[in-house]
Design a protein that fits this description.
single chain
């Protein structure tokens, strides 16, 4: 409890807070950070391997191979989520699976699977984008603002 709330708490609330703190399970923060770092890095290494595969064996440049790489990662994450593998993997890895694009694909696919009994339009379509909607809006607004700033800098600064 913060100090300001601690001062306003009744003696019963303070006693309960002390009891709760005594029985609270301590989280292994360092171990969780290491797991997240390693798993997130492994996902990125897999993405890089897919990227190299596309520009080595197909007619892509290093720059254009990124689009099919992201599509493959999204497809794999959606498939693993559908088979129930991704969620078990995410329980082990924590935030390491949430940061790359695969975590976003997992969240959308999970919402779609959870609400499929409500129908395709109102269930899957409506609930799938509750989480994704804010991310898409933020991404669109951020891209617009960055493009606006870049345009202004190019006009005035000659970049």
């Amino acid at each position: 409890m913060s100090n300001s709330k601690q001062k306003q708490a009744t003696p019963t609330q303070q006693a309960y807070q002390a009891l709760a703190n005594r029985y609270e399970i301590k989280r292994p923060v360092l171990k969780n950070c290491i797991r997240a770092f390693i798993v997130g890095g492994l996902i990125c290494i897999i993405g890089q391997a897919i990227n190299i595969f596309f520009y080595t064996f197909f007619d892509f440049t290093e720059r254009t191979a990124s689009n099919p790489t992201v599509a493959v990662l999204i497809l794999l994450a959606a498939l693993f989520t559908g088979f129930g593998v991704y969620d078990r993997f995410a329980q082990f890895a924590g935030a390491g699976t949430a940061v790359p694009v695969t975590g976003f694909a997992n969240s959308i696919t999970s919402a779609a699977i959870e609400h499929r009994t409500e129908g395709y339009v109102l269930g899957v379509g409506g609930n799938m984008f509750k989480l994704a909607g804010s991310v898409i809006v933020f991404g669109t607004v951020a891209a617009f603002l960055i493009a606006l700033i870049k345009t202004i800098l190019i006009q005035w600064g000659g970049l």
